[in-house]
Amino acid sequence: MSIALLSFSGTWNVTSNGLANDQETAKRQITRKKLMKEFCATHAYKTQLTKSDLEFIVVDDVHKIIYCTIPKVGTTTWKRILADLRGLGNDVRIHRWNLWRRFYEYTEEEKSQRLQTYFKFLFVREPLARLVSAFKDKFVGWDLAVSKRARASMVKAYRPQDFNPDDNRVNFSEFVQYFSQKMSKEISTGNNTNSSAIHAL
């Protein structure tokens, strides 16, 4: 079983003839998979996965694709591409929950069969770039509604005297401190799953 572990930096690096260098791409894949295996071997993680662990893995049975979605790593673009493959049209709300089949919906036998035969991929992104993007979009930008609870928690934790039941604004330093602390706690307890604080970005 193999998985494509791809890097997204906001732009695509290509050679002068428009094609990525296959050898360099293969080397990066090997390096990334080695790093991932080393991390998993030295950090605690769940051996029995729950529904919440698998809810961000979407499945396209028609095209035999499994996509592990990670917010702020091109998820909107790739969901749009998958929606286009299904002929859903440009006006579809691609983040609508019931638009996609989730990996947890299958039996253990069905999961195993798909893992062995489907094309599986995910994208990763330079962590600081992802943090900045999340902060700009979700904490000071156009999508503030999704961060209301997190912003309230940050203000309560770092500036309780400034807490406002209706709205709270945070700075980037508070944002980084909050998620760094939550991630450290999740990793130390083995609760670093897809539904964790980092995935909520």
UniProtKB/TrEMBL annotation:
SUPFAM superfamilies: P-loop containing nucleoside triphosphate hydrolases (SSF52540)
InterPro entries: Carb_sulfotrans_8-10 (IPR018011), P-loop_NTPase (IPR027417), Sulfotransferase (IPR005331)
GO biological process, one term: carbohydrate biosynthetic process
Membrane recorded as keyword: yes
Superkingdom of the source species: Eukaryota
GO function term, MF aspect, one: sulfotransferase activity
Keyword Mitochondrion: no
Coiled-coil region: none
Compartmental location: Golgi apparatus membrane
EC number: 2.8.2.-
Keywords, alphabetical: Carbohydrate metabolism, Glycoprotein, Golgi apparatus, Membrane, Signal-anchor, Transferase, Transmembrane, Transmembrane helix
This protein's GO CC annotations: Golgi membrane
Membrane topology: Single-pass type II membrane protein
Subcellular location, principal: Golgi
Family: Belongs to the sulfotransferase 2 family.
Protein name per the record: Carbohydrate sulfotransferase
Originating species: Desmophyllum pertusum
